[in-house]
Structures are given as structure tokens and as C-alpha cells.
């Protein structure tokens, strides 16, 4: 399988923007899918305008006309029905590879994770939908649609800026879960973008697989030490029990509290997201190396 023409949707988002930057620096021909009424602007990038309702026939026609080989979806993973429409359009439009909006902090292939965090169930629904199309024949002898789901752990550098890793860097506070010695996987945004490029460069090896990657495999105490070194300040430490935290915030999440959902993701992405020994851990397959913790933390602190 050869991939030449790549389309991205969601190119101004937290992850979409670095993925687009990496794509523009690659050897692929890049297009961005943009809804008709969107105000997003993509300088020096080919834009394919699609209807706001993501009508399958119209999007499929656009993908076919531009001979798109791969579609990368970086819209919010919670938009399940939007993703299914895009997948239907990719199937109908002759696209060879779809990378859905999996990414993120937690493992949607893990039953306990899906029970604790229903948000992940939506990602599983999308993946199951892709699985259902694997062996489905397409018109005109077009080869079967393939997919790759990429699971990254917490967005590491981004997460340090917004509390996702349980640190308030500006306030010099650390919220340490279960003693702080749990190893967890996290990935910097540029690293994730690089992983996407590597998947497209190895289409046969990555077809129809759920792949796990990380740029950091660390504990909260490792991160705390790096933060204190980078800032020269002692952080105020608050010890927390993850089970008790979840008992308090999950009921709020289940009632639709968005902040509570983010907090459940933050907790679970530390205590249950260690990819190192996981089947499907793909750093070696994709030629990716773990990154230096101190260097990344120093960069984030300097930017803050």
C-alpha cells in the first residue's frame, strides 16, 4: 500500500495544529478538510471545503476528486457520529487509511477504563465501526479500507500547562496520587505528530492495529523533581488517594459536569496508563525514542 495524498480534519485543535505542521514538513501531499462555515484559516495549505453536516456523499466525492489516500481525524474523540460519517465517506471515497480520533490519555481497549470513563466507550465504538468495514468490499475493485488507532497517554507538555498531569505549575502545587511512584505513559504533542507521520510512512506494518506510544515513561515524583529543578522552587505537595478522588468526582462526571470529566481523565491517565509492556507498544516499530524529561519540563516552564 502506498500513501501519497493525506487529508486532515481538525487542523486548528490542540493536537491537530502540531499534526498539520508535521505533515507540512513531510513528503506527503497535504489537504485540510474545512467545514463550509468554519472560520479556520490555513495559510499555504490546500483546503477542501465540505458541508457543515458532513454529508457522506458530498465528503466522499471531495475525497475521491482529490485522490485522498489517508484521512486523519483530530476532532474531539467524543464526536462519535461525526467520525462515523467521516469513516463512511472515506469508505465510499476510496480512502486507504483512516486514523480516528483515538489518541488521548486512557486505553479505550481496556474494559475497566471504559467502565470508569464512559468517554472512552465512544472511542471503542468508532474503532469497532472501523473493524466492521475491514473485510467489506468496495466498488470498482478498490482495496479494503484500513485503520490505525494511536494511543498516546496524557498529552505531556500540554498537560503540564493545564493541570492534566495533576500539577499547578504557576501556583507551584503538586497533587500526588497514591504516593507518586506509579509509572505512566505520556507523549508531547510534537512526538504524537511524528508518530502519525511514521504510521503513514509504514502503512503495511501499521494496518488495522491499535498502537501505543509514549515520549515519557515516568512517575509523578519524577515530574515533580524535574519541575522543582526547572523552577528553582519547592512545590506545595498535596497527597491524594485515587480511589477516593474518583468516588467524589465520578458522580459529578456522570451528571454531565465537564470539569469533573477532565479530572477523572487526569487521575486515570496517571494511575492506569502504563504502555511500556503493553501488547501493541510501538515505539520500536515506529522508530521513536523516549525524550529527555528535564529538557521538556524546562521548555514548558520557560514558555509559561
TrEMBL record:
Against CDD domains, the record matches this protein to: PCBER_SDR_a (cd05259)
Q: Which domain of life is it from?
A: Eukaryota
| Entry GO MF terms | oxidoreductase activity
Domain (NmrA-like) ranges: 5-239
Residue spans crossing the bilayer = none
Keyword list (alphabetical) reads: NADP, Oxidoreductase
Protein name stated in the entry: NAD(P)-binding protein
Q: Which organism is it from?
A: Clathrospora elynae
